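dumping this here before i forget
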Amino acid sequence: MSYLTPDRTKPITARKLGDDFDRAAILEALTINARNAARAVETLTPKQEYPRSIKDRLQRNKAAINAPKQDSVQRMVDREAKRAEGKGIGYDRWAAVHNLKQMAATMSIYEESGFSSPEELEAALAAASAGLHEVTGQTGNAVPSAAGIFSPSPTGGNTARSAPDA
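structure:
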């Protein structure tokens, strides 16, 4: 005797079950199991995947730390210096493409910020620096009055006074 359920392609044999099992009881147990399996699929929570070994976990963490941010401009590669170090032609080709990508990203950021050239950016930085020096020059006379709060300690660092000297 064998039973073929709708979700299976091969029938289940009942030879080894014994004489006290009848067809109706087995089909009832199979339908209950099918309902339980369907309910379990609905409430199934995703398992957290664990690394196979400590080496995998360390490599994954290292890759995350060493990976550069894709939304930032990176440094250009000095191709002449790398050639002098003995880097091959493959590295040189990669560096050429990398440098082009970084130049394009730099120009994109210039345009997004409202600058059309590096000279305009330098002029804006100089103006901002002059404004900063002007502001710090106005508040510079307040800094010496705060210097009286600190006294030198025997270890060489400055510590704040907590009580007046007696």
